[in-house]
Structures are given as C-alpha cells and as structure tokens.
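Sample entry was shown:
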Amino acid sequence: MTLPSFIQLSSADNVVVATSNLARGTLVAGCTVSVDIPRGHKLAIQSIEPGDGIIKYGQVIGIATTAIQPGDHVHVHNIRAAEERDERRAGKMEVVPPDLSGLPKTFMGYRRADGRAGTRNFIGIMTSVNCSGTVAKLIAEEAGRMVDVSKYGVDGIAAFPHTTGCGMSDQGGGYEILKRTLEGFIIHPNFGGVIMVGLGCEQFQIARLMKETGIERSDRFQFLTIQQSGGTRATIDAGVELVRKMLPVVGNVSREPIPVSELSVALQCGGSDSYSGITANPALGRAVDMLVALGGSAILTETPEIIGAEHLLAARAADSQVSQRLYNRLDWWVEYTRFFGNVLNNNPSPGNKAGGLTTIMEKSLGAVTKGGASPLEQVVDYAERPVRRGLIFMDGPGFDPCSATGQIACGANVLCFTTGRGSAFGCKPVPSIKLASNSQLFEHMRDDMDINCGDVVSGTSLDDKGREIFHMIVDTASGRQTRSEHHGYGDLEFIPWQLHAVL
C-alpha cells in the first residue's frame, strides 16, 4: 500500500505535515513543493502573509515573518513564536462542528443514589494514612480470596494505599488537596461501596474528613482504625467481615441505559513521541469534540506540559475569568518550581527525546490537541469537582499517575491514555484505554494497547479514528474490559499530589 505523503491535522490548517521526505517539484495537496522538505516538517498549502497565523492542530502555533507561498517550507526561517498579544488570532479560528451521525447516544452504566453515573462497580479499601496501607491491602487480598465477587456483580475489591496522611500540617493547601482527593474517591460513582482504614493517631483523621465533607457511615461506607480495632489481625478480620456484609448491597445494582452526556473522560498522555501530536492526540481530540457536542465532559490536565501552548487554550476559554485562572495557575507553577531550584521546561523526558520530541513547546502543542477544539469551560484545582460540563482543565503535575488520581477524584469515569513509547498504567476504579501513536508500538506491545492510531499516517482520517475512539469509550463505559484491566493494573497507581512540607 502506498502511504500518503502528508497529513492535514485539521480542516482549519494552512500547513500540512510531511510523512516522507518531499523533493522539490513534487505535487502535494495541490501545491508544488518549492524546496526539498524533510519528513515531519511543515508545508504551506495556502498563501500566508507576514503577520498571519500559522495554523496547525487547528490552532495558531506561530506568526509568519515573511510572505509564504503554497508549497513553501514552513519552519524557523519564516516563523516567530506567537506572543501574548497574538492570542486574538487563535480566538478567530473557525471550529467545524463534529459529525454526530451514527454515534451511540447512551451507554450501559450504573445509576447511583446521588444521581451520578458509574462505569464500574468496585468495593474500595481506602486509607487515611500511609500507616494503614498494608492492612488495607491485606483486607482486599484476603476478602478477594474468600469471596467470588463476580457472583455479586462486583468488578473487584481494590486497596488504595498512599504515602501521606501524617508528618504533615492539619491545615493549608496540602491538607486540602488530600481531603479533596480522598473525598472524590470515596464518593466516586465507580465505587459501589468503600471501607476506609486508618491507624488512629494520624494527622488526617477520618472523623474530621466525614464532618467536613458530609460523608456519613452507611451500608455503603464504613471505617476502621487499627488502634481501636485491636491491632493488625483484628482489623483485617473486621475489614473482611465488612466486605462480606457490603457485597450484597453493592451487587444490588444493574447496568441501565444512561446518556453519554454523563460520561466524564480523563485525558492523559505519557511516553510521548513525535507522532503523538499527529495521530493519537488529535484523534482523541476529535472523540472529545464528539463527546462534548453530545453534552459530555473531558478533563485535560498536566499544567507543566501546556507550557508554550497555554495561549491556545486561553483563546478557547468560555470567558475572561476562565482564561485568567489558567494563566494564574501557570504563574503559580513558575514560582513553585523556582522555589525548588527548577524550571518548567525540564521536559521533554529522555524517552520523549528518543521518540523525536525536542522542546516543551513541541510537546505541549501536541499534548493540548487531546482537548480537541471545544471551548474551555472551567479551570479547577487538583481533585476539585467541576460545576460545568464540557472541556475542563484541572491543575496538576505532569507525573501521569498523580495527575490521573486527581482527574478521577474530579469525577472522571473513563480515562484515555495516549502513548508513543509505551505505557503500563491503570487507574482503578476507572478503566484506562491505551491509544498507541504508531503502529510499531501497537504491534510490539499488543498486550497493553487498546487502539492503534498509527494507521492515521497510512490513510485513516482523524475523524474516522476519532469515531473509533468514541465507540471504544462507550463500549468500555458499558463494561468492555481494557488491556490494563485485564492485567490487573490500577491499585498501586493511586498517588495523591503531596503539596506540603514533610514535618
């Protein structure tokens, strides 16, 4: 099969990306190539005047410094970086509504008592402090050996130990982040029931969490402390007994049709390569636009990995307060990293560089395409539940498991994870869908990848790939098991953001 010589990432783009070395005189996209152009570089397909925006990913990635003709090489010799005053250019970009014909409008999910929709039905063994992590893990393991949860219609019993909860202040930002994270998991609609285990003397007290969040003891939420229960063995036995009593209650629910507008999809990328911003990320963005158009939500995050592309998100903000909040969070990160003697442009990672990425701007411009072209409705703090639907940005670090933990606490009930180098990740109680950016990775790690986006290079359109991803999201939300679920990933990847001094 003959591969196409270029890719146009958006119908709004005035450049295309070469997928092979293009010789001078070659006819590409109706244009005659004026000079030899290397694979992966950009080619103009329209006349571009000095001062006009260069559009790639459907977004302004720079400003033309000279007149550019169709067929010209578009690179550092005729582009300058877009400055803050150029954001109005991105704001004028025309967005083409997605084609929603033939898309499913419902999924088969669990309707919870608070009205929210779940895609899985787990029992979670949460912990208030690192000291109770082992006991929580043993409760989950012992109960899992003693009881066949599948007979109850329960997806599993999973423990969520973490490394904080004491040696910290009981007030301030670090405490509030941990509280929001634990609350978000306890009330998450993918849990049918939760048992929380503490030590008893820690800074982060279960009783205080309940008082401040309004969580009450019930047949779906119970708690234990090791000191009050009589030690390790007694707490494990008590925990297993609570699981036994909870199983019939948790299992007393069936999947039912629920509008896709109640899906909230966490967007992640990790182990990225140069193809991530060409195939997997923009294809996921197309699926996001479909979901948002149908009333659903998507949560973009990893603040340090939008550096150099933040103005593109800000230009899509629903109002000036949303864009200002995004800039405020970036300013905070500049000071935060400076305090530790670091800088925000410590990306890309060695694996990213091996995959062809060179700068944080290049990585960021590809990463933000996961959010499609939908308006940015809200910017929320880490683990803060949004009050709007649509595209949401959650402030959080670029460390994938940590940022994903926050997205789940925000209420995401499905996660899509793009990768070009390969990623081994799961995030119970939420299913994680892996999208390979290139066909070589998909073949090499077939046991870990759910969708191959590498065929975008060989002719599959981004719209068609986006529809494939959308259908996978709906199927997964309805119970289809992902590769990471098959392997059992998701317990050890629970990593709340520790934003506090260790005291």
